[in-house]
Structures are given as C-alpha cells and as structure tokens.
Amino acid sequence: MAFIVRTLWIIPALPALAAGISATLRQRQRLLSAGLAIGSMGISLALALCAFAQSLVDPNRQVVNFRWMQFGSDWISLGWALDPLTALMLVMIAFVGLLIFIYSTGYMAHDANFTRFFCFLSLFAAAMFGVVIANSLLLLFMCWELVGLTSYLLIGFWYHRPAAAAAAKKAFITTRIGDLGLLLGMVWLYSQTGTLLFYDHGAGCLEHGALTSLLGAASVAGIPIFTAIALLIFCGAVGKSGQLPLHVWLPDAMEGPTPVSALIHAATMVAAGVYLVARVYPLMGLSHDGIATALKVVAWTGAITAVFAACIAVAQNDIKRILAYSTISQLGYMMLGLGVGGVSVGIFHLITHAFFKALLFLGAGSVIHGCTEEQDIRYLGGLRRFMPVTFATYTIGTLALCGFPLLSGFWSKDAILHAAHNWSVSQAPFYLGAIGALLTAFYMTRQVCYVFFGERREPQTAESPRAPEEFCFVPDPHESPARMTTPLAILAILAVVLGFIDTPAWPWFTSFLERPEPALATASPVAASLNPALDFGRFAEAGLLPLMLMSSLIVLAGIGLGWWLYGRKPTTRATDPDPLERVAPPIFHALQKRLYVDELYESTIIRAAHWAAHVSAWLDRWVWNGAVSTVRLLVTGLGRIDASIDTHAVNGGFDEACHEVSQGGRLLSRFQNGKVQNYLRVIAAALVALAALLLWRSAA
Amino acid sequence: MTPLIAYLLVSALLFSIGLAGALTRRSAILVLAGVELMLNAANLNFLAFWRYDPHPEELTGFLFVIFSIAVAAAEAAVGLALILAIYRHAGTSDVSEITEMKG
Amino acid sequence: MTVLITILAAVTLSGAVAAMTLRNLVHCALALTIAFAGLATLYLSLDAQFAGLAQLLVYVGAIAILIVFAILLTPGAPESDREPRPHISSSELIGCVLALGVFAILAWSVAHSAAARSAVATTAPAGNMQQIGETLMQRYILPLEIIGLMLTAALIGAVIVAMKESQAPR
Questions:
Q1: Distance CA A91, CA A572 (A)
Q2: DSSP 3-state assignment of A157?
Q3: Do A146 and A127 touch, CB atoms closer than 8 A?
C-alpha cells in the first residue's frame, strides 16, 4: 500500500489541529491564526496532490479500514479510501479552500473576530476532507454533521445580527431534516447488509455481494428495499445540496461573510450532497429492469430544481442571493447529470462549478468590500471603471457559468444536456435543462449589467435595509487589495481552461473517474470508450455537434436578451422599477418573493412545530412534572410520616420507657435511705418470711 | 416441757428481745447492745444443746461458746470504737440521722 | 432447783427487756449488765462452769464497761432528755412485730422438733479444765490461733479507729 494512502488521514487531521489551536488563541493573535489555517491547508493541498498523483499512477481503489467500536460480538469499522473520485475532490477542496483562505485574510481584515473565523474555517476544511475520504457511511455521516455544524457557526458568524442568527438556525434545521433521511437510510442499509464500509475487499456494502443481496431482498409497501434505502440517502443530499423542498436555507445563508458563501455554499459543502450520490452510485443504480428508480427521482429532482431556482434568480436584487439561487440551480444540474449520465457527468460539472462559482462569489465579495458593504444591486452600478480586475474576472466567471462556448461551464453543461437528451425515460428533463440554461444566461447578464455597467447610482442611505452601523459613506468605490484580486485571477484562468480536461475530443476526466468501475458509466457522451487519446473525430458522433450548436445558441440568446433589457439603457436611479417588472408585474413580484415557498413552510410546518412544542411544553409541565411532583410529594410525605413516627413513637416511646426505668430506679433507691436500722428490719423480715416458708414446706 | 425446751424457749425469747431492741432503738450503742443480746442468746442455745447432747464429752458446743464469747468481745470493742468515730464525725450517734450512704 | 432456774431466767429476761426499753442509756447499760450476769448463772446451771465464768469475766467485766464508756463518751443521745412519748411510732411497731414473728417461728420449731422432745438429761460431764485445755490445743488449735490473731487485729483496729487525730487536718 502506498505511503500516501496510509497517511491519507493527515489531510483532515492537520486543519483539525489548526482549528484546535486557533480555538485557544486570543483575538489579537490574528497572524498566528491565519498562518495556522493557511499553513495546514497548504500542506493538505500538497498531500492531496500526492494522492492525486498516486491515483493517476494506480487508479485502483485502495482502502484502509480499522475497527472502531464493539457491539457485543460485532465490530463497527471505519476507514478511508483513495480512488480517483476522492483524489479529485481532495484537490478541488484543498485548492479552492486555500485560495479562499488567502482571500479571507483581506476580506476579514477589519473584523474583530478574525481568529474565530479562521478557527471555524479550518474546522470546516477538516470536516469536508473527512467526508470525501471516508470509506464508511458512518464516518461520512459524522463528518457530514460536522460540516453542517461549521456551516451553522459560519453563517451565524455575526451572531449579534438577528437575521444572521435566524439564518444559521434555518440552515441547520433544514439540513437536519435531510440528515434524518440519511440516518434512516444508513441504519436500514446496515441492517440489510451488516456493514457500513463502502469497500472492504468484497464485504463492503457497495460491493457485489451486498448489492446482490439487496437486489434479492423483499419489497416493502411496493417499493424495493434498495430503492427505499437509496431514496433515504438521497434525502440527505437534498438537504445539504439545496434541492427543491429543502432549498430554503441556502439564500438565507448569504447572511454569512462572503468567503463563507464562496467556500461553503458554492464550492464545497453544497457539493457534498452531489458527492454523496456519486459515492453510493452503485446502490443508486440498482434496478430490476435496467433503469433505477432512485436515479429517476434524482434526475427529476435536479431538473425541476434547476428551473425553479433559475426563475427565482431572475427577480432578486441582492448580489449574493442571485448567486445563491444560481448555485441551487447548478446543483440541480449536477443532480440531473448524475441521474441521467452517471458519476463522471455530474462530478465534472461539480468541479467546474466549484471554480467559477467560487470566482463569482469572491468577485461579489470584492464588490461588497469595495463599495462599503453595499449588497443591493440597485444601489450599485458603473463599477467597471472603478474595479477593473474585479470586473474582468467576474465577467469571465459569468460567461463560464452561462456556458459560453469553449469555457469550462460549456463543456460540463453540454455533457449533462447530451446525457439528458439520450435518456431513455423522458425528454422533459432535457427541455427543462435547456430552459434553465436560457434563464441562467439571462439573469447573470442582468446582474452584470446592473452592477458593472451604467452609471453609479446613489449609495446607500440610512433608509436602506442594511444595518445603520455599517453605513460608511465613501465617495468612490475602490479596487480590492492584491490579496483579494490574486485569487480572483487564478480562479478566472482555471474557469477558462479547466473545461478542456473532459471535452469529447479528449475525455480524460471521464476515463479517469471510471477506470475502477467501468460499469458506473451509463450514458456518458463517449460511452464505453476508455481510451483517452485526442480524437477530434468524436465530435461527429450521434447528435453531439447539433447539441453543442443549440446550447451555444441558447446561451447567446439569453445573454442577448439580458443585454437588450438591461444593458442598452442601464437603470439610472435605484428606485426605478426593473424593466422586467414593467413588462409583467405579477410574475415579477411572485418571483421576487421567491415563489412564496418560505411563506408556505412558515404557515404549515413551522406552525405545526410550534403547536407540537406547545403540546410538549404542556405535557412536560403538567403530566411529567405532575408525575414527578406526585412522587416527590409521596416520598416527602412518607418521609415526614417516618420522621414523626421516629420522633413521637420511637423516640417518645423510648423516652417514656427510659423515664419509667429511671422512675423505677428512683423509687427503688428510696429503699436505700442510708438508715442502718431499716436494712436490719428488711433483713429480719426476709428471715421471717424465709423461715416460715421453709417450715411450712417441711411440715406439709 | 423438757428442760431442753425450756432453755430453748428462753434463748428464743432472749433473741427476740435483742432483735426488737436492735430494730427499734435509735441509739447506735443500744443497737450494739441488742446484737450482744442476740449473741448471748445463741450461746445459751449452744450450751443447752451441748448439755442435752448424747455425747457431751466431745465439748464441741462448749468450745464453740468459748470462741463466740471471744469474738463477741472483739466485735464489741471494734464496734464501739466505730461508734465513737462516727460520733466524732457526725456529731450524733443516732442511727436514723446518719444517712450519708443514702442512694 | 427448777424454781431457781426459772427465777434466774426471769431475772435475765427482765434485765434484757429493761435494757431494750429504758430511756436513759446508762440505765440500759446497767440493765444489760444484770442480763449478762443472769446469763452467766444460767450457764452455770447447765454445768458449763468455764463458760459461765468466762461470760462474767468478758461480758460483765469488759463489754458492759465498754458500753458504759461509750455511752459516756458520746453524749447527746436523742432519747436521754426527751419527754416520754405516749404512743409507739411505726418503726417501733414494725420492729416489735418482726421480733414477735421471729419468736413465733423459733418457738414453733422448738415445740415441734422431735429431738428437743426426746432429749433426756445425761450425766453431767466432768468438765475439768485439763480436758478443755487438751481439746483446745489438739483439736481446735487452728481456731485458737486465729482467735488470737483476730483479737490482736481487733485491738489495734479499735485503737486506730477511736484514736483522736493528733495533727490538725491539712
């Protein structure tokens, strides 16, 4: 076993150690805290690159398992695995994470809680690494929960703001609902297969033996067990990756600092859900008749989420919320890709999305930082003159997100659309995906036009919704320092070139991911071809060129529509209505109100939860408390009775008896009056009596 | 009424008189006197039985009486010395007044 | 002869009664002397010459005198100067009753004893001193020596107990 595989655990351990040390530092020790975080992340990146190199050399999966806890005669085992998927995720997380850490030193420079921020960031990085290297569903779950915890801590970083505290709570609770499904699925899987290790030299729950037994297991309520387990595990992914019913926490999570939004809610944590589906893909892909029900559910959920979120993003005014809905939408695309196309399709989009979404968020952070914390795009404008680097990198990121031809997003989104087009179940996800692409291009262009083009609209006033203490009037926005713009530039370059690792001409990525299990590939663009040699002839394969042409047209159409509405005559005043609002006010308002999903949840689930809480409180106060109080009263009553028995009966009786004894003694002592003659008389009387007795008896 | 019985009755009477005096009189000396009478009555008893014994040449009763007289003498001496000491300590020789052993 | 013994017994008994009932202590002591003397004569009548004379020597000659000395050395006896009480106190009554009871028992047992009824006067023993001396020195040597020891101890003890304390108490 290679050295790096045996020491793979160091990758999460180092940031965890940095977090532990940071937790003990004082607020003044900023340099030490940032240094620990960035240093540990750098070393983890180096180790991740070593792991990546190892997996390039030897793509076979290597696992290290160890026994952890004993239950009677059974052992719960944990472990880590190194395979191409893990290696890719490690490098992506480490690289993006390191860039964002460096960016944060500039962004959070004015914050008093700098040290705490880096402690939480390091802890998050450790947990995320743990999720991707875990070879056991239990270990993955533990790190999953830790990721959720650090997300809560970081969203609520400015906890004295009620909105931030509420957002953190909402994020935690919503993902918890999904995690409940994941926990149930995990327990069910353990009871069915007897192990939670993914790969264990043939005995793991994702290996042939376990999968066969799951296929053979009976159905429950008409649903095969493997589908039920897969759907339960997918619940966890729905929560963590913000798919449709549980997406409500992601936009609110933008209350956290921008680096947090970039790292956690764009690149890594939300990708954990997609990674989970990819990890348990053998289980998801089980079916009796060729098309797995679980994968169908995944695909439909992804497609609907993609369009839903894209619609809402069109009408949002906060720069980060637009990006948040965009993230939800792109995560939907990833789920769609996993459902219709296989692991490599979804993961490819995850990798490219991580880079350009992080770029967009960091760019938005740069804008916010340079414009004195203003986040409403109606109050921004004309920034391309003041912040050129930010403008350039942001534009590149936007184009990559839209899927502009030849950029990274183009290749990854095209792979998804191609797979959806070839899906045997239905063409509807394909059309939904296409509509989503159009909307994506539209709203991103809208955002860029609002923020960077036109003239500067008046800065925030005291009436703006931002907290008054952050208002600090600055005449002109300024470009961010090099610490912040350098990561932007690096990410922009990668957003351009990263797509080329998996073009149809050179599908290196697909073959790399699918080397251990060629069976995982169901409908990738170059199915069954494991030879990653450069071959432009593959473009001529069935329907590929027309599809690429069509998607390019969709993108250009979206950009053009956006430019036509927002770019030609940029809005001059912040209070001017949105051009879209002028065209269709009711739809615009509904979209701006996020299609009333939050209000729906508030009126149904939240209210039910409040009612349940009231009932529980009542039960607690009257029933349980009453029972306990009754027992208490009973016991204290018995105690009092006992005490009174002791005092009066026992003590009293005893005292009385002693009194009687002493009385008797006093009585008897009166015989001892010290008078000798009395004693003599007694002796004489006794003598008389005794003699009389003896004589009478002898005479009788 | 044989002579023996007469002597025994006399001795019994003497004994009771001595006992009555010892129990009744309040002076310590008279209590002692009563005790002496009782002793003497016992001596008379012994001698009576010795005289009318089948074998009087053994002198058992007789010698018992001799010893009894000796002991009574010693006891009277010590007793009276004690009475003197008590008189000196308590100021009185009235037995009903000396109650220091009261318990 | 019997009449003489009866008279002597009566004298003895009345002397005893007088000793126990008279109020003046000195009178009591003198009555006691009479009782002792009467008893000595009774011993003589029982052919116990040595006992009778020893009784006279010891009792009348020593003990009675001792009692007189003691009476004189402890004045303030409560009954000497008091007026004669008309009624008998409860303690006196109890004492008399008890003595009566004792006499009753003794008399009853004497009267019902077979040995006493069948006693017959044998010849008076010769009772010479040589016989007494021999018996004393042979058979009763141990009691004799012990009597000697006891007399010595009593003598010393009486002296010590009755001795006035010469030094002042510290």
A1: 44
A2: coil
A3: yes
Higher-pLDDT residue of C14, A389: C14
Q: Number of C-alpha atoms within 13 angstroms, CB side, residue A596?
A: 8
Task: Determine contact, residues C54/B64, Cβ cutoff 8 Å.
Answer: no
Residues on chain C touching A688 (C-beta within 8 angstroms): 98, 101-102, 105
Mutate which of B25, B30, B99 to test chain A, going by most A C-beta atoms within 10 A?
Answer: B99
Check if the beta carbon of residue A144 is closer than 8 Å to that of residue A186: no
Phi, psi of A76 (to 5 degrees): -90, 125
pLDDT per residue as tens digits for the range A683-700: 999 999 999 899 888 877
Helices marked H in A403-507: 408-421, 428-452, 482-497
Report pTM.
0.65
Annotate A165-208 with DSSP letters as a single string: HHHHHHHHHHHHHHHHHHHHHHHHHHHHHS--BS-STT-STTSH
Q: Phi and psi dihedrals of B94, rounded to 5?
A: -85, 120
Using alpha carbons, select from A103, A105, A124 the residue that is nearest to residue A19.
A124
Q: What is the mean pLDDT of the segment spanning A443-456?
A: 85
Cα(B94)–Cα(A639) distance, rounded to whole angstroms? 63
AA identity, residue A313: A
Strand partners, C86: none
For chain A, the distance separating the N- and C-terminal CA atoms, rounded to the nearest angstrom, is 118
> B4 and C119 in contact by Cβ < 8 A?
yes
Angstrom distance (rounded) from CA A392 to CA A492: 9
Tokens linked to A105: 């030193």
Q: How far is C108 from chain B (nearest CA, A)?
A: 10
- B86 Cβ neighbours under 8 A, 6+ residues apart: B28, B93, B98
Cβ-nearest to B70 among C12, C126, C147: C147
